[in-house]
Specification:
The protein has helices at residues 3-23, 29-46, 72-83, and strands at residues 54-57, 60-63, 66-69, 91-103, 106-119. By secondary structure, it is α+β, with helices and mostly antiparallel strands. It has one domain (3-119). It has a 5-stranded antiparallel sheet. A hairpin with a 2-residue loop joins β2 (60-63) and β3 (66-69). α1 (3-23) runs antiparallel to α2 and α1 packs across α3 (72-83).
C-alpha cells in the first residue's frame, strides 16, 4: 500500500464512520465495525506520516502537503467540517486512542481524544 492509498482509505473510512454515527447507536455492530476500520486505517496512515495534519475547505481537504479534491469523499468531509462552523482553511492535529469501554455489562468502542491543536494560518 502506498502513502496516498493509505490516506485515501483513511478519509473514506472517516466519512463512513461519520455517516454511520448518525444512523446507529454507539453500541450497534455496524458503528463498532466502522470505528474499528477507522482505527486500522489510521494505523496504516501513521506508518507513513505522523501526525497527519488535515486542513479543509467546503469542497476539499488538505493533507500531506497537497489538496485532496474532486472525489465525493473529500467534498463531503470538507462540507461536514464547514457546516459545523469550523473555519474554512483551518487546520488541526488530533491525538486519540480507541479503547473498549464496558459499563453495566455493555461494551462499546470509545474514542478518547488526548489532544487537539488548532493551527493558526
Amino acid at each position: 500500500m502506498t502513502k496516498d492509498e493509505a490516506i485515501l482509505r483513511f478519509f473514506q473510512s472517516l466519512r463512513l464512520m461519520f455517516k454511520t454515527a448518525v444512523m446507529y447507536k454507539l453500541d450497534h455492530p455496524a458503528f463498532i465495525h466502522c470505528v474499528e476500520d477507522l482505527k486500522g486505517r489510521a494505523e496504516d496512515v501513521f506508518t507513513f506520516v505522523s501526525p497527519l495534519s488535515v486542513g479543509f475547505t467546503p469542497r476539499s481537504l488538505f493533507a500531506d502537503g497537497r489538496f485532496w479534491e474532486g472525489e465525493k469523499t473529500f467534498r463531503e468531509l470538507g462540507m461536514l467540517f464547514h457546516l459545523r462552523k469550523i473555519k474554512s482553511g483551518a487546520a488541526f492535529d488530533i491525538a486519540y486512542t480507541l479503547i473498549e469501554n464496558t459499563f453495566r455489562g455493555s461494551t462499546s468502542i470509545q474514542l478518547n481524544i488526548k489532544d487537539i491543536k488548532i493551527e493558526n494560518r
